[in-house]
Design brief:
single chain, 138 residues, mainly alpha
């Protein structure tokens, strides 16, 4: 069983892990200012956001953890009516303030499709390695 990176418990990620880099709670003047230079609806800016913030932020995870996370994303993308906009909602009770909220992202599904595409390009070799391993031994 794949363990959480920082605790001795099972790794049970949700899609919110993917967008953690876009949470700017109490960092609006620093991280927020950096992110707001980009338009998440512009394809070129979106690619920069994904590569420079989202994927970079996930590098603390092992290749196995990132592989599992992308399987979860693939499953969500395979669900026709999955509501990706909810992933951009801020939750002030949980100290999560998103750089762009659900009303500012024109195509939330498309945003996640781009994350999936770019992650599979950037981490292709690692995902190939993980796919060849016996996941029951993790």
């Amino acid at each position: 069983m794949l363990k959480s990176p920082f605790a001795d418990k099972p790794f049970e990620p949700t899609l919110s892990y993917i967008l953690a880099a876009l949470s700017i709670y109490d960092r609006e003047e620093t991280k927020g200012e950096k992110l707001w230079k980009y338009n998440p609806n512009n394809i070129n800016d979106r690619e920069t956001i994904i590569k420079s913030f989202i994927l970079k932020d996930l590098m603390y995870l092992s290749y196995r953890h990132r592989y599992v996370l992308m399987i979860i994303l693939k499953d969500a993308l395979s669900t026709p009516n999955f509501d990706f906009s909810k992933e951009f909602e801020s939750d002030h009770d949980a100290y999560i303030t998103m750089a762009w909220d659900e009303t500012e992202i024109e195509n939330p599904r498309g945003f996640f499709m781009e994350i999936y595409r770019i992650a599979n390009e950037e981490w292709k070799d690692e995902f190939q390695k993980a796919s060849l391993e016996d996941q029951n031994t993790w």
